[in-house]
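Renewal narrative, Specific Aim 1. Our central claim is that a sequence can be written position by position from structural information alone. The example that follows is taken directly from our test logs and has not been curated for this report. It begins with the structure tokens describing the chain, in the order in which they were read.
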């Protein structure tokens, strides 16, 4: 474990160096958050009773989503791993005395945490000082906040495990198809529209898929849309999908490495 802690620390510190990129990303996230909230304002004013989430819950959902976008987005991380597969540098990775799956997982996790650390505090500060109805609310209780923290950690790990399947696909396609993984992941996890706003039959199916265990669960727990035993059930489902994705990813990695061929001079 020492080597992985050291690797996490190195990648985390390295990720903190990109302050200019974080500042540019903050501008985008502020603008996107306001745009989403203003769009929902128009819909809620038309017919408030037709929506499955209270407006304050939707506002909190959007601001938490923007604050921790780097943790939960299924795109933008893992380029080094994919490039090493495509250009053959994976030969050097295989020569290192570390499990390749664990190494890539650790690097992706550290990069996401570093990016989120740079961006989350400005977004949260602004969200808490905005006037009503654009202000983000605190959870209803300490227990609710505690469940949010647990769910957020699990959702983050589920995202990393899901993205590892994206990296594994490069062994077979020899190209980057992460846009497909990202589009599916973002749509089904509530990145574009919260899952409660989808038609009930679609939502009933989506909530049992691994995508709902990414950002959907922690964001809805924080906002209060999911509470009590329903929140406990969501967390249990997150544990289940994390275990499944980890086992699947490691098995796929072993199978891929048995057939890997590197070319070059």
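The sequence written for that structure reads:
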């Amino acid at each position: 474990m020492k080597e992985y802690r050291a690797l996490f620390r190195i990648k985390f510190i390295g990720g903190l160096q990109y302050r200019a990129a974080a500042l540019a990303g903050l501008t985008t996230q502020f603008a996107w958050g306001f745009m989403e909230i203003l769009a929902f304002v128009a819909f809620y004013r038309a017919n408030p009773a037709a929506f499955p989430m209270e407006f304050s819950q939707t506002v909190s959902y959007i601001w938490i989503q923007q604050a921790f976008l780097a943790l939960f987005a299924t795109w933008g991380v893992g380029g080094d791993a994919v490039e090493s597969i495509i250009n053959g540098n994976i030969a050097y990775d295989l020569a290192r005395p570390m499990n390749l799956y664990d190494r890539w997982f650790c690097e992706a996790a550290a990069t996401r945490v570093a990016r989120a650390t740079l961006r989350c505090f400005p977004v949260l500060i602004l969200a808490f000082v905005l006037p009503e109805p654009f202000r983000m609310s605190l959870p209803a209780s300490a227990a609710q906040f505690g469940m949010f923290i647990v769910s957020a950690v699990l959702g983050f790990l589920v995202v990393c495990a899901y993205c590892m399947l994206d990296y594994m696909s490069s062994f077979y396609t020899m190209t980057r198809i992460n846009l497909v993984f990202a589009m599916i992941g973002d749509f089904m996890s509530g990145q574009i529209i919260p899952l409660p706003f989808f038609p009930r039959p679609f939502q009933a199916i989506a909530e049992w898929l691994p995508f709902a265990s990414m950002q959907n669960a922690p964001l809805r727990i924080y906002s209060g849309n999911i509470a009590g035993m329903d929140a406990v059930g969501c967390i249990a489902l997150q544990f289940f999908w994390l275990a499944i994705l980890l086992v699947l990813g490691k098995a796929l990695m072993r199978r891929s490495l048995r057939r890997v061929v590197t070319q070059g001079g």
